[in-house]
Amino acid sequence: MNGNYPNCWGSVPRQVSAPVWTTPQVELNRTLRALWEQHIYWTRLTVNSIVGNLPDQNETIINDRIEPQALQMADVMTIGIIRQFPQAFVG
User: Which of 35, 38, 22 is nearest to 83 (CA)?
Assistant: First the structure.
């Protein structure tokens, strides 16, 4: 369709452009995806250990892995938001 899609009000096609990402946006996206994958991995291991009553459930998995990883993800998101909208954080 070459980027032309019908709109809701008739059959007249309209041009739809793809979003343009800057290099910092791409890097933020990659970092957040990696952190999210790690979060899923450690959460799943923890749930499996607890549900399966495995010996490693008594270790401090939540404190050693999940909590610091979640805090790291929050830090990256905060930095990304501040870089994207700096005017909102200037006093």
Answer: 22
